[in-house]
Design brief:
The relative contact order is 0.15. The chain is globular and about 60 Å long. Helix 1 packs across helix 3. The protein is 53% helix and 0% strand. The protein is mainly α.
Length: 109
């Protein structure tokens, strides 16, 4: 009976991947847990009611028809004269968490 042995390079790759995935998952979980605080401290100045209502400087975000790519790009790069860019101050995990926060906005009860 023949047993297979991973080539050394593949074994190293599997080990590195196993160490990297949990760190990435931890970053995502932390960012998701902090998303509301991040939103309130960075976005809430202009997007009123936690992004749920119109009437602020920025538009209502709940139920927006903008694409995920549009939202991520706008958060990273801003819009001249309208919205500051946050790409240098927020990590990709934080920006993705903000996107999930926006997509999950529901009316306050």
């Amino acid at each position: 009976m023949r047993t297979s042995v991973l080539p050394p390079a593949l074994a190293v790759l599997v080990l590195v991947a196993a160490m990297w995935v949990p760190a990435w998952a931890d970053d995502t979980a932390k960012a998701d847990a902090d998303a509301q605080n991040i939103f309130n401290s960075t976005c809430g100045w202009c997007h009123q009611g936690g992004g749920r209502v119109a009437g602020g400087i920025g538009p209502k975000l709940m139920a927006t028809d903008k694409s995920d790519d549009f939202i991520v790009n706008r958060v990273k790069n801003g819009k001249e004269g309208r919205m500051p860019a946050f790409g240098a101050s927020l990590s990709d995990a934080q920006i993705q968490a903000l996107l999930r926060y926006i997509r999950n906005l529901k009316p306050e009860s």
